[in-house]
Specification:
This protein is of the alpha/beta class. It has two domains: about 170 residues, HUPs (Rossmann fold, 3-Layer(aba) Sandwich); about 90 residues, Pantoate--beta-alanine Ligase, Chain: A,domain 2. The protein contains eleven helices and nine strands. The strands form two sheets. A six-stranded parallel beta sheet has the order 1-4-3-2-5-6, with helices on both faces. It has a three-stranded antiparallel beta sheet with strand order 7-8-9. It starts with a strand and ends with a strand.
Amino acid sequence: MTSVLRLSTPSDAHRWSDERRRDGQSIGLVPTMGALHRGHATLIERSQALCDHTVVSIFVNPTQFDRSDDFDLYPRTLDVDIALCDSLGVNAVYAPTVDAMYPEGFETSIDPGSLAHRWEGEHRPGHFAGVATVVTKLLTAVQPHIAVFGEKDFQQLAVIQHVVRDLGLPVTVVGEPTVREDDGLAMSSRNIHLNPEARAQATSIKQAIDRALDCSTSTGSLNDIVEQVTNDIQRSGGTVDYVAVVDRLTLEPVTDLNSDTQLLVAAWFGGVRLIDNVALAATE
């Protein structure tokens, strides 16, 4: 028997939040699609350090999937997730149904603009419109003071910060560094679908990133970095969607390394798509 409160509708969440706000208490939101792992626990702990109350939303959002099979296969472990939230001292879990989030007649969609066009946006058409819309709905329902997102989904974090700023939403978006497995693989709910061979191969992403960091502090050019990361992943059995060195604010490709340069990677292993990123520093 769990003691964490479960909220199921936007009105439930709104009412709960109103009560805390009237008492002058701060609220943090950790938006997730469930299948929680240690990376999510870190986001929860960050929210708890910043706010009086923490809400974890669990909703597998159909509008951000560009492939129906990906949506169908996304892991759903709601009871286990709620138990984990309870053990971590989460105050409330907001787990709405699809009908509660998108009732009959729902037509509105948020276009997050040019920041969403490249990289993930190019390979997953409509993805960021779905993300921007669902996150805005979650923020509207829960009314948090702080919302915590992982930096593993670097472009997603940038898009959400952009939407919050453009719409003037009264929330501070906080990014939390990527949490990794002991062998360096970035934690992801999708990792559960990796077979043993693909799981071993997928560590090449972090290995390639580490080599890129070495290259960025030596004499390597940006083309050298992109080529090296691509080749390392392909030699390990991965299929690369993109490797890009971009400005971390605009996400546009850069020609020179500077303090705002980010390396973005997306690759497939054993039918599972994984993403990762790292900040690159200019040679001093």
